[in-house]
Amino acid sequence: MQRIVVLTGAGISQESGLQTFRGTDGLWNHERIEDICTPQGFRRDPMRVDRFYNGLRAQLPGVHPNAAHLALADLERAGREGRWNGQVTVITQNIDDLHERAGSRNVIHMHGELLRLRCTSCHATPQWRTDCFPDTPCPACGQPTLRPDIVWFGEMPYHMDSIARYLAECDLFVAIGTSGVVYPAAGFVDSVAGHADTMLFNLEVPPGPSAFDQAIVGPATRTVPAWTRDLLEA
Ligand code: BJW
């Protein structure tokens, strides 16, 4: 049985129409990271941060899973149904819901989810599809203390214990559409060295020596389905 951990980043959703963070047309060419993506930025100007995430949340109904999301879901389903002797776990840095909408069930959102909020008073994490503002009351406790359920810089990513277990037990680690600059996700490839093969799927090969055994260059909608097809036909 092959155990595959797939780490996904913004690049896998780019061909669905969602911007990456750091590309030439990246989200952060228009915003300063420290204004939006830190707890300090939110304390300074919660309306600005709420508006930023309201804008991203509003895009979700208009975008759809692409061939790369669907290929990963199909591989996972093949394992569940016994058509392929393997198991897939997706660890995503993305805050969109495109893996779930594609049909993936084993999805870990390490940087949170756009479609949830978190109450800093009662710690409820209600599902949320509309706008949120600094005076929006928490549906659980009534306090106006909701924030996006997003992991900002300086905060601990979610589910690190189960992620560590999946990484320790995998035979193959695959990273798709991530620049590899944000830790701890950027360090996963090093943590599996010695017990797992590693593959990177990206539009471009990162400069300099790579920690990955193999780099597959091209758009994820082309390269990922070709790879999963090979696995299913092997
Ligand atoms: C395609 C494609 C196509 C395009 N097909 N490919 C100094 C050293 C080391 C670490 C630190 C340090 N100083 C501070 C830190 C820690 C910090 C960090 O890493 N900073 C670095 C920037 C230096 N990390 C943190 O603070 C994290 N917390 C933490 O470390 O806690 C302590 C801890 C200790 C011990 C154990 C564990 C934890 C928290 C990080 C939170 C990140 N949050 C964000 C924002 C959330 C969402 C939002 O605001 O909208 O998450 S930041 C942002 O970057 C987002 C992403 O998930 C994340 C990664 O970006 P991603 O996905 O890689 O996107 P891009 O745009 O960078 O790259 C896209 C790639 O796709 C490119 O390569 C393209 O080529 C490719 N691509 N189209 C294939 N069609």
Explain what you see.
- This protein is of the alpha/beta class and 234 residues long.
- It has 2 domains: 1-18 and 65-111 and 156-233, TPP-binding domain (Rossmann fold), CATH 3.40.50.1220; 20-62 and 116-150, SIR2/SIRT2 'Small Domain', CATH 3.30.1600.
- It contains 9 helices and 8 strands.
- It has helices spanning 10-14, 33-36, 39-44, 46-59, 67-80, 98-102, 160-169, 188-191, 220-233; strands at residues 2-8, 86-92, 107-109, 112-119, 146-150, 172-176, 197-202, 214-217.
- The strands form 2 sheets. Strands 3-2-1-6-7-8 form a 6-stranded parallel β-sheet, sandwiched between helices. A two-stranded antiparallel sheet has the order 4-5.
- Helix 8 links the parallel strand 6 and strand 7.
- Helix 5 (67-80) runs parallel beside helix 9 (220-233).
- It starts with a strand and ends with a helix.
- The relative contact order is 0.19.
- The structure holds ligand BJW.
- Ligand BJW binds at residues 9-11, 14-15, 20-23, 26, 37, 93, 95, 111, 150-157, 160, 177-179, 181-184, 202-204, 219-220.
- Belongs to the sirtuin family. Class III subfamily.
